[in-house]
């Protein structure tokens, strides 16, 4: 077949060759510098076939990926589709020609910029590495590395390291299996030994031998041979095992003495001394007869004071002064409700009045930690302002209160011409300092006496006050409230009065007293309360010794509140239907006998009884049938009015109930 065209041509790089061409027909794209010919083969007649495998690069041309071009005598292959533009070396890879300046020759070359290597340290000798590793290794090659810890990265073997903390020299030793730091030159550490010429030890000295001895050998008679004790370098105690008194006769001089120093380290006094000449030990100070402390004293002195102190322990009018008994709440936290006084422990109630504040109260304890040196109470009462009483209104207040029954307080004879003073002692720890108030009221709050007490923040302190007897007003001497003591942490002007005199009305705090609950989490801790007739109180050191024993205190508390639960179980706890504290015969065919429960202690007055079933539900009992076993939630009622010694619970009302059980609380509190 003969074409009517010899060839076709175009200068547009985007124009593709016409398909089909005449077999043997020539087509030219001058922009792309490409020639194609029409295929004459059977099955592909007229298909344009590119004739140039390698093109000369032209800025007017476009090239698909993989195109081969020559440019400036170098053969390249396109890495991307290239559009008409100047030659961009980043779009091409060199195949044949001179070395491209963007690459480093394997045979050797010179870079014009820095070469960055991975940060990891090399693991093989032939690997290149970074400058940091090289610097570290060069530093490690110094004869001795001085540092407070083993150097990192680990230096080469046989490197020396001086430990500036331990004062020891080490060498990095490779035994063929492991590499480790070992002491290069073992030698004793002089800091671990005491110098013969005198030194200070930082630990205890123990002597273990058969018949050990500590010998203090003075080089001359008449020289003091002393053993001193210090606190932070300040003298506190001194024992002279041979003082400066000269020796003479058979056994004169070089006497013994025990002396103390004040807080500044100045000599105080000699408390105990002994003389060799007569072999007697004497007290350096003789206590006066009014001194009730545990001082060195004569037998006459001891006999004079032993009886009154014994009597004080049985004369205390307080109940649960050491806060050991908490039958109702144990050490659970009670959030108080506004205005209402609520018992936090037996004999101790707390209350506050404020529209914005929130208070909690609980019994707590220090474990085995004394309040102060030599003084220990196992429990105390805690009152905290979880939300502060920040702005004290005229009618606001917050206090502990301790009511005392008239029968207990009658010996003070208040309200009569024979009224005697009463002394109150207590331990207290406030988180804020200032002027604290202690108030005493009669039962109907028509008589008040307020005393001011200065307190220091963040320390336990023992305080005593004596309240003069009130010859006026009505003071019960029966089973009602004989006197009520208030320990006031905050009170507004409505409840304030001048300190130190009896007034009419309900007063709780001294004028201008401190608000101890002005900030969130401010807290007052109290314990060790004693309320004694007359003007005497135990010393701080002896105050724990006159507390009544726990078993006696518990019986006293049960006069006002009692439960059938075991002591550790709170009322309303689900103990199980068959585990109630009280069990009694039920009924058969609807006829049963009420349960009569006798109190362990006669109550102050007829108490309020609350009955609980085994699930802890109030006003319900648990019943038992042979067929059905124990069942909770059965209706409960009292068969009659409770008395001061017992109460009667009605038997189940319907069905056969072989046994019924319940727990109870009896509340006769003031």
Task: Spell out the blueprint of helices and strands.
Elements lengths: L6 E4 L15 E4 L4 E5 L9 E3 L3 E3 L11 E4 L2 E5 L13 E5 L34 H10 L3 E4 L12 E4 L4 E7 L4 E5 L42 E6 L2 E8 L14 E6 L5 E9 L4 E4 L15 H17 L18 E2 L6 E4 L2 E6 L4 E7 L15 E8 L9 E9 H4 L12 E9 L3 E8 L5 E9 L5 E7 L13 E11 L4 E2 L4 E3 L4 E2 L11 E12 L16 H9 L2 E3 L18 E7 L2 E2 L2 E4 L9 E5 L7 E6 L3 E7 L10 E4 L7 E11 L3
Parallel strand pairs: 1-2, 5-6, 9-10, 29-31
Antiparallel strand pairs: 2-3, 3-4, 6-7, 7-8, 10-11, 11-12, 13-14, 14-15, 15-16, 16-17, 18-21, 19-20, 20-23, 21-22, 22-32, 23-28, 24-27, 24-32, 25-26, 25-28, 26-30, 33-41, 34-35, 34-41, 36-40, 37-41, 38-39, 38-41
Account of the protein in words:
- With 670 residues, the protein is mainly beta.
- It folds into five domains: 7-96, Seminal Fluid Protein  PDC-109 (Domain B), CATH 2.10.10; 131-183, no CATH class; 226-283, no CATH class; 334-556, Sandwich (Jelly Rolls), CATH 2.60.120.260; 561-667, no CATH class.
- The chain has four helices and 41 strands.
- The strands form nine sheets. The chain has a seven-stranded antiparallel β-sheet.
- A hairpin with a 4-residue loop joins strand 16 (267-275) and strand 17.
- The longest helix has 17 residues, at 299-315.
- It is extended and about 150 Å long.
- The N and C termini lie far apart (133 Å).
- Mean pLDDT is 86; it is low at 298-304.
């Amino acid at each position: 077949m003969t074409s009517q065209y010899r060839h076709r041509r175009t200068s547009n790089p985007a124009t593709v060759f016409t398909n089909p061409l005449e077999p043997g027909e020539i087509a030219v794209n001058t922009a792309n510098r490409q020639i194609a010919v029409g295929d004459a083969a059977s099955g592909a007649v007229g298909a344009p076939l590119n004739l140039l495998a390698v093109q000369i690069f032209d800025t007017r041309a476009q090239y698909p990926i993989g195109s081969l071009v020559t440019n400036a005598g170098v053969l390249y292959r396109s890495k991307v589709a290239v559009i008409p533009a100047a030659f961009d070396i980043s779009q091409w890879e060199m195949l044949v020609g001179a070395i491209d300046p963007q690459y480093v020759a394997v045979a050797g070359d010179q870079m014009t910029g820095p070469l960055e290597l991975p940060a990891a340290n090399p693991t093989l000798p032939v690997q290149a590495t970074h400058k940091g590793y090289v610097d570290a290794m060069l530093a490690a090659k110094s004869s001795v590395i001085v540092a407070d810890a083993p150097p990192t990265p680990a230096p080469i073997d046989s490197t020396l390291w001086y430990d500036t903390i331990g004062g020891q020299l080490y060498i990095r030793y490779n035994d063929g299996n492991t590499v480790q730091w070992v002491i290069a030159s073992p030698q004793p550490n002089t800091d671990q030994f005491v110098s013969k010429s005198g030194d200070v030890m930082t630990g205890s000295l123990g002597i273990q031998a058969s018949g050990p001895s500590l010998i203090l050998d003075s080089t001359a008679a008449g020289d003091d041979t002393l053993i001193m004790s210090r606190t932070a370098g300040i003298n506190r105690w001194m024992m002279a095992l041979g003082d400066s008194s000269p020796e003479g006769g058979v056994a004169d001089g070089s006497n013994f003495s025990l002396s103390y120093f004040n807080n500044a380290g100045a000599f105080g006094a000699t408390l105990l001394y002994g003389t060799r000449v007569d072999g007697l030990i004497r007290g350096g100070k003789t206590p006066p007869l009014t001194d009730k402390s545990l001082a060195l004293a004569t037998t006459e002195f001891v006999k004079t004071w032993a009886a009154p102190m014994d009597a004080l322990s049985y004369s205390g009018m307080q109940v649960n002064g050491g806060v050991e008994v908490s039958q109702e709440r144990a050490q659970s936290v009670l959030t108080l409700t506004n205005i209402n006084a609520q018992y936090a422990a037996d004999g101790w109630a707390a209350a506050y009045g404020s529209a914005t504040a929130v208070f909690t109260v609980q019994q707590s304890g220090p474990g085995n930690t004394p309040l102060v040196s030599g003084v220990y109470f196992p429990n105390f009462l805690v009152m905290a302002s979880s939300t502060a009483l920040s702005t004290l209104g005229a009618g606001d207040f917050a206090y502990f209160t301790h009511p005392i029954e008239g029968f207990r307080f009658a010996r003070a004879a208040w309200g009569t011409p024979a009224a005697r003073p009463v002394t109150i002692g207590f331990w207290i720890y406030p988180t804020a300092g200032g002027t604290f108030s202690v108030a005493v009221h009669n039962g109907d709050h028509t008589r008040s006496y307020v005393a001011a007490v200065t307190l220091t923040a963040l320390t336990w302190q023992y305080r005593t006050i004596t309240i003069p007897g009130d010859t006026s007003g009505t003071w019960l001497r029966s089973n009602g409230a004989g006197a009520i003591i208030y320990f006031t942490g905050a009170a507004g002007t409505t409840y304030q009065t001048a300190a130190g005199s009896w007034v009419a009305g309900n007063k709780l705090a001294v004028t201008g007293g401190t608000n101890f609950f002005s900030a969130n989490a401010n807290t007052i801790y109290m314990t060790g309360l004693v309320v004694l007739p007359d003007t005497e109180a135990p010393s701080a050191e002896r105050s724990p010794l006159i507390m009544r024993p726990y078993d006696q205190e518990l019986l006293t508390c049960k006069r006002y509140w009692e439960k059938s639960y075991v002591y550790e179980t709170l009322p309303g706890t689900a103990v199980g239907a068959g585990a109630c504290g009280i069990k009694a015969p039920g009924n058969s065919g609807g006829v049963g006998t009420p349960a009569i429960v006798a109190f362990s202690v006669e109550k102050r007055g007829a108490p309020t009884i609350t009955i609980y079933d085994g699930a802890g539900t109030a006003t319900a009992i648990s019943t038992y049938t042979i067929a059905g076993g124990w069942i909770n939630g059965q209706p409960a009622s009292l068969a009659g009015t409770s008395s001061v010694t017992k109460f009667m619970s009605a038997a189940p009302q319907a069905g056969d109930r072989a046994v019924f059980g319940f727990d109870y609380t009896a509340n006769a509190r003031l």
